[in-house]
Amino acid sequence: MNFQLTEEHLAVQEAARDFARTELLPGVIERDEKQEFPTAQIKKMGELGFMGMMVSPEYGGGGMDTKAYVLAMEEISKVDASASVCMSVNNSLVCWGIEQYGSEEQKKKYLPRLASGETIGAFCLSEPEAGSDATMQRTSALDRGDHYLVNGNKNWITNGNSASVYIVMAQSEAEKKHKGINAFIIEKEWKGFVVGKKENKMGIRASDTHSLMFNDIRVPRENRIGENGFGFKFAMSVLNGGRIGIAAQALGIASGAYELSVQYAKERKTFGQEIGKHQAIQFKLAEMATKIEAARLLCLQAADLKDQNQSYAQASAMAKLYASQVAMEVTIEAVQIHGGYGYVKEYHVERMMRDAKITQIYEGTSEIQKMVIAREILN
Ligand code: CAA
């Protein structure tokens, strides 16, 4: 395993840290409160190359490796997990999915726009009755020769309204079960595309999560990704990489809360001294730091395996399982260290605690990660 960071990695990390502090931190509390999508900030992230980090330069991307992506995701997530989920879905589910499995025409048509942040992408797998059990796709895509006719509903779609390009999984031949599922690239302007209800969420409130409705959308045949029936495998493969992004998001939420806690422990005084001088706080900080370091190593290990073209489904599920657990534990402790101040919005850690919870749910719950890990162990 190679955990050596190159000069390029360190430069990306620093650029992401600077951006997060100068552009995302101001207004992060208000955006959370008002559920306001960070439109201007995401546009700048695109200009700086954070929206298509791993896309090849020939398609307008940064051509960076997964480790650079993990480092940037951690820094952005330390400050604003709503911005980072948008970044993660765009990079690892949409751009990577198209570059890895799309046709040359699809890559040329969609990647430059997605990588530059001119367009945002969304990944549409979940449905009212197909969350963890993703094989139960009810959205249908009937083969009509030169096009597919797509009908159905999707739920909990990150970037649901802010996106313009959607990767949609739909069932074309129900009798074949998951082998009848196809993946398509669908554009928002196409007739029959309806953006539904916006979810009023506990955390990552500035990210826009919507239901979507598809009413007789005519999707050109050339917008199917891969061979007929490849859609489920496509989704599973893309999610293996997506989970590295969410693991890094969880890591960032934890390390953001930890850094605030260290700073607070040096400033806040009780019983005549800084609270960091009390052993009760020291033990908490030591445990938080240890867990964060372990989560970081799991994230980098999964990223390194992916970069070395080795199997990484198990490593990415482990990273997501553990980092999301750490995000929850560390943010709860961060609120505890901050005491009453931790319970109010100005000190950020209450938002981080709310944001942390989703990392144990999306791109597969913790229980799904355990299924993926066990599946890899037993196979
Ligand atoms: N990697 C590659 N292939 C996989 C895979 C993986 N991790 N898991 C399953 N597959 C393949 C299998 O090899 C199998 O292929 P064959 O038919 O060729 O043998 C096929 O998929 C079916 O496998 P299973 O029978 O094991 O499938 P299953 O139905 O028992 O369960 C599951 C699979 C892992 C539970 C899967 O349904 C799953 O991952 N569910 C969670 C879905 C999920 O993460 N949803 C998140 C939505 S996206 C999101 O949240 C984005 C966002 O907005 C932030």
Which band does the percent of strand residues land in?
15-25%
In spatial order, strands of the major sheet run 1-4-5-8
Distance between the termini: 23 Å
State the share of residues found in helices, binned by percent. 40-55%
- Quickly give the structural class: alpha+beta
What small molecules are bound in this structure?
acetoacetyl-coenzyme A
How many strand segments?
10
Radius of gyration: 21 Å
Average pLDDT confidence is 97
Profile the largest sheet: 4 strands, mixed
- Poorly predicted residue ranges: none
State the helix count.
Answer: 11
Please write the string of helix (H) and strand (E) elements: HHHHHHEEEEEEEEHEEHHHH
Q: Quick one: overall form?
A: globular
Q: Which characteristics define this entry?
A:
single chain, 379 residues, alpha+beta, four-stranded mixed beta sheet, four-stranded antiparallel beta sheet, 52% helix, globular
Blueprint of the fold:
Layout: H1 7-24, H2 28-34, H3 39-47, H4 66-79, H5 81-101, H6 104-116, E1 121-124, E2 140-143, E3 147-158, E4 165-171, E5 181-187, E6 193-198, E7 209-220, E8 224-225, H7 231-267, E9 269-270, E10 273-274, H8 279-307, H9 313-338, H10 349-358, H11 366-378
Parallel strand pairs: 1-4
Antiparallel strand pairs: 2-3, 3-7, 4-5, 5-8, 6-7, 9-10
Acetoacetyl-coenzyme A is lined by residues 85, 89, 123, 125-126, 132-135, 158, 178, 232-233, 236-237, 239-240, 313, 362-364, 368, 371-372, 375.
